[in-house]
Amino acid sequence: MTRELSINGIHYNEKALLSYCRNKMSHSDYEWEKNYCKFILEWLDDAEQVKAKTSGSTGVPKAMYLSKQKMRNSAKLTGEFFNFKAGQNALFCLSANFIAGKMMIVRAFEWQLNLLPVAPDGHPLENICSDIDFAAMIPLQVKNSLKLEKGIQQIKKLLIGGGAVDQVLENDLQDLSAECFIGYGMTETVSHVAIRALNGNNKTQAYHAMGNAKFSIDTRNCLSINAPAILDEPLLTNDVVELLDETQFEWKGRYDNVINSGGIKLFPEQIEKKLETIINQPFFISGLPDEHLGQKVVLLIEWDVADEDQKKELECKMKNLLDKFEQAREIFYIAEFKRTSTGKVQRDATLDAVRFSR
Questions:
Q1: Are 189 and 213 contacting, i.e. CB atoms less than 8 angstroms apart?
Q2: Residues 9, 124: one domain?
Q3: Of 163, 129, 115, which is closest to residue 143 (Cα–Cα)?
Q4: Which of 171, 175, 190, 264 is deepest in the core (most CB within 10 A)?
């Protein structure tokens, strides 16, 4: 295991790195700095596992232990895909409390990248002047960075994760020189296990397996992952996919989000994709019990002002845009959605707030 690391252009051997981290944890005024130094110390200890937790987007966050060897295997696959070279600049702008942030540090160790840590907030490139060979960001960080004069153009290869990339954002990426990708994965798969190109000549709607990973589906058309390098046994997910072959799939939506309305199964994520062109605020589609349909489609919008004229205009646009069974039977305006600590919308918790307020 490589025990040396470069941070902000300074190379630290193990002894110097331990001293650097302990000093930061004792004297830094920033919790995010203490967090990444805490993980580095955990990575360098003699234990074979590290503690991690799920994001909580589909339920209560769960603690779990991950094999350091599996994490190194994952870092190796990522580096091979993105063609990492020792000394390249890697922007580190994610929380070290979650798997995506932890894996950025592991990649830097394994490939001897130069780690450039910044606060894991919504504006990671504001004070960055140097070119970035590789960065991983959440969609909000990407959107904000696109507003800067140089912004994403400083980055050669960008991996987006931690949330859906809407159609508006995907369109904004098309004219960039930066190669942009979205990863598919979760804490259990030690970050991404498949990657989809979002722009350039290789742009596709299909996710492609990393390394020797193989995919299959169950009777629900939910994805099953067989990836011995990062999983001890096959992992069955709740993600409904269209399987193209054993190494490629197109993502359709979450099985636990499916709405059964009048006997027709509807994927909220597919309806949302259509609505992204006409709704500028955060929103999502869900289902509520209905006496006649079983479930009815409802639209929830994060907006504290419910203007009736705007509502009627939106309903009119939806009639022209959506199929008959996709139409929202009710629209709810909510001042603030429930979110995880990483910013993901908690659909069930937000919907429960609507149910209890009716």
A1: no
A2: yes
A3: 163
A4: 190
Q: Per-residue pLDDT tens for 70-115? A: 999 999 999 999 999 999 999 999 999 999 999 999 999 999 999 9
Q: How far apart are CA 146 and CA 138, in angstroms?
A: 13
Shared domain check, 172 and 72: yes
**233 belongs to a structural domain:** no
- For 208, phi then psi, to 5°, come to -110, 135
Instruction: Please check whether residues 53 and 126 belong to one and the same domain.
Output: yes
pLDDT, tens only, 172-213: 999 999 999 999 999 999 999 999 999 999 999 999 999 999
Q: What is the domain extent for residue 345? A: 258-357
Residue 339 DSSP symbol: B
Nearest partner of 196 among 214, 175, 210, judged by Cα: 210
Q: Residue 56 maps to which CATH number?
A: 3.40.50.12780
Rounded Cα distance between 338 and 259, Å, is 20
- Looking at the domain assignment, is residue 148 inside a domain? yes
